[in-house]
């Protein structure tokens, strides 16, 4: 299943990864990642999320 992941890092940066497989998050999220939010539906960025 593909979706959008939002990674919150220890250094207060936020990384948004679009169109990523949920299983690939383990490769993207490392020990510096404090939290990961997952959204399995398409985000409408024009709407203002």
Detail the poorly predicted runs. none
Helix content: under 10%
- What does the average pLDDT come to? 78
Helix/strand order, N-terminal first = EEHE
Biggest pleated-sheet summary:
3 strands, antiparallel
Principal-axis shape equals: flat
| Percent of residues in β-strands | over 45%
Radius of gyration: 11 Å
Q: Helix/strand/pairing class, anyone?
A: mainly beta
What is the tally of beta strands?
A: 3
Q: Number of helical segments?
A: 1
* Terminus-to-terminus distance: 21 Å
Strand order of the largest sheet: 2-1-3
- In the residues, how many domains can be counted? 1
Describe the structure.
- Helices cover 8% and strands 47% of the residues.
- By secondary structure, it is mainly beta.
- The chain has one domain (3-42).
- The protein has a three-stranded antiparallel β-sheet with strand order 2-1-3, with no helix packed on it.
- It is flat and about 30 Å long.
Properties at a glance:
49 residues; mainly beta; 1 helix; flat; three-stranded antiparallel beta sheet
């Amino acid at each position: 299943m593909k979706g959008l992941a939002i990674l919150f890092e220890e250094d207060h940066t936020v990384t948004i990864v679009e169109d990523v497989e949920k299983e690939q998050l383990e490769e993207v999220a490392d020990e510096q990642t404090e939290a990961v939010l997952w959204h399995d539906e398409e985000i409408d960025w024009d709407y203002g999320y």
